[in-house]
Amino acid sequence: MRISKAALMSRWAWSTALAAVVFAALFTLDLRLKALSGAGTADLQSFASAAQFRAAFWAWSQPPFALRAGFDLGLDYLLMPLYAASFFYSGIIAAEGFAPKPGGLRRIILLAAMVPLAGALCDAVENGLELFMFLGGADDGLARIAFTISNAKTIALTVGVVLLAAALAARFQARRRAAKITL
What we know:
The protein is mostly helical. It has one domain. Helix content is 84%, strand content 0%. It is built from 6 helices and no strands. Helix 3 runs antiparallel to helix 4 and helix 3 crosses helix 6. The chain is elongated, with a radius of gyration of 19 Å. The relative contact order is 0.13.
């Protein structure tokens, strides 16, 4: 499949902007949940035992908190494809900017562009496990699996953030070159 440079830049800008807006909303809502109940959905990422999950779920035992927590976990599912697209497009832009010709570096950057896609899948599985434990009861085995998947997701998202920074650097570098040519 081929995509024009204009379409790539447009999709990158839209997916990045929308991901930032949804992330900001989710972050704000989660901070509010944590302030009200003592536990936020982002806290679940660091839990490795059923007791930790049970404590958070107990904090959300009141219907308004359970509704907020469920909404936050659901909203995260909207964020996943947005950040996956943004980071994937960032990888393509970084490859074009820093390794425009075929070679080892280009292959590495394009392979790294796939990592955030795997991270979004890990995020979906992690949230699914958390919702399953929230509705059906926490279990140490599931808690450990969710913790491991969360760590894999964090690594993948770190790669995505690096790709986003590389894409921004490639765009600024291209603009500087264009400005020098016009002078």
